[in-house]
């Protein structure tokens, strides 16, 4: 997922600023330079982590 796609995704969620920052921190950690992960591995990891964050949100 490229930054533009991720930004569009975040915009659709209509999150509070604090949550947006958490989402971007996650994105930046996964897509850091010189990562040994492939593009698909990064995308799958990101989606998995986003699902976890979303499920934690619904439990609150």
List the helices and strands and how they pair.
Blueprint: H1 3-13, H2 17-30, H3 39-59
Structural class: mainly alpha
Strand percentage lies at: under 5%
Portion of residues within helices:
over 70%
In total, the number of strands is: 0
Shape: globular
Mean pLDDT across every amino acid position = 88
Radius of gyration: 12 Å
Taking the alpha carbons of the first and last residues, their distance comes to 28 Å
Question: What series of H and E elements makes up the topology?
Answer: HHH
- The total number of structural domains is 1
Q: Number of helical segments?
A: 3
Main sheet overview: none
Residue runs with pLDDT of under 50 for 5 or more positions:
none
What does this molecule look like?
The protein is mainly α and 60 residues long. It has one domain. The protein has three helices and no strands. The chain has helices at residues 3-13, 17-30, 39-59. Helix 2 packs antiparallel against helix 3. The longest helix has 21 residues, at 39-59. The termini are far apart.
Concise summary:
The protein has helices spanning 3-13, 17-30, 39-59.
Search tags:
60 residues, mainly alpha, 3 helices
């Amino acid at each position: 997922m490229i930054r533009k796609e991720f930004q569009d995704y975040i915009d659709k969620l209509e999150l509070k600023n604090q949550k947006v920052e958490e989402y971007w921190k996650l994105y930046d950690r996964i897509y850091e330079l010189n990562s040994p992960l492939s593009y698909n591995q990064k995308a799958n990891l990101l989606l998995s982590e986003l699902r976890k964050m979303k499920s934690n949100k619904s439990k609150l």
